[in-house]
Design a protein that fits this description.
It is built from three helices and nine strands; from the N terminus they run βαββαββαββββ. Helices cover 23% and strands 37% of the residues. The longest helix is centred in the first third of the chain and has 18 residues. By secondary structure, it is of the alpha+beta class. A five-stranded antiparallel β-sheet has the order 2-6-5-4-7, with helices on one face. A four-stranded antiparallel β-sheet has the order 3-1-8-9, covered by helices on one side. The structure holds adenosine-5'-triphosphate and magnesium ion. The site of adenosine-5'-triphosphate (ATP) has 12 residues, from strand 1, strand 3, strand 6, strand 8 and strand 9.
Length: 185
């Protein structure tokens, strides 16, 4: 049975692509290189991800509804070539991203957004820019223009609970779904 206060307690959640072990190692190396140039706080290797949709605080009683939404996704996986290093001066985040968003990834995000809307969930609606955060509090005015491309084979996606602590966020993967071999567009 659901605890009586389940409608009161909330969890901070988001959908994301989560790297496999090889990609995690490659991203960790890259964050090390960027850290040598730009300083700041490195993303922990086990926290590397690409956010698909950020929901923020959701009542715990509705987490099952999010799992139902995720299970309805029909879009295919895709390969994402991470080739582009950058830095946002306001947030002081250094990141790696694809030069252009693969169409299959936009399709996946749009499908997820449409399913979330239909199910009555609210999510952040800023223009979608897929990226992996490598450093926070960094100073990267001139990120390296060149990097060896990293090819991320996205074959599944996850639902993550984020617990903000004074040592940075702790991410807990609470669901994982395969991306079909077909297509959704
Ligand atoms: P911290 O907030 O302590 O720096 P964090 O940003 O990694 O840590 P969260 O704020 O829980 O942790 O965010 C989880 C993920 O969702 C991150 O990839 C973050 O960039 C992204 N995210 C957070 N807020 C938003 C938002 N309003 N819109 C889109 N994505 C967001
Ligand atoms: Mg944040």
């Amino acid at each position: 049975m659901m605890p009586a206060d389940a409608h009161l307690k909330t969890a901070r959640v988001f959908f994301a692509l989560w790297p496999d072990a090889d990609m995690r190692i490659a991203l960790d190396r890259l964050s090390g290189k960027m850290h040598a140039l730009c300083g700041g706080r490195r993303t922990r290797a086990n926290a590397m991800h690409i956010t698909l949709a950020f929901l923020g605080e959701v009542p715990e009683a509705r987490l099952a509804g999010l799992q139902t939404v995720a299970a309805q996704v029909r879009c295919s996986g895709c390969d994402i070539a991470l080739t582009h290093l950058g830095w946002w001066p306001r947030s002081r985040i250094a990141w790696v991203a694809p030069a252009v968003t693969p169409q299959a990834l936009s399709g996946l995000v749009h499908e997820l957004q449409a399913l979330l809307e239909t199910a009555g969930f609210h999510f952040d609606e800023r223009a979608y820019f897929p990226h992996v955060t490598l450093l926070r509090h960094a100073d990267c005015r001139q990120p390296p223009a060149e990097m060896a491309a990293l090819s991320w084979a996205a074959r599944d996606f996850v639902l993550v609970k984020s617990v903000l602590t004074e040592h940075g966020p702790v991410y807990d993967v609470i669901g994982r779904w395969q991306l079909a071999a077909g297509s959704c567009t």
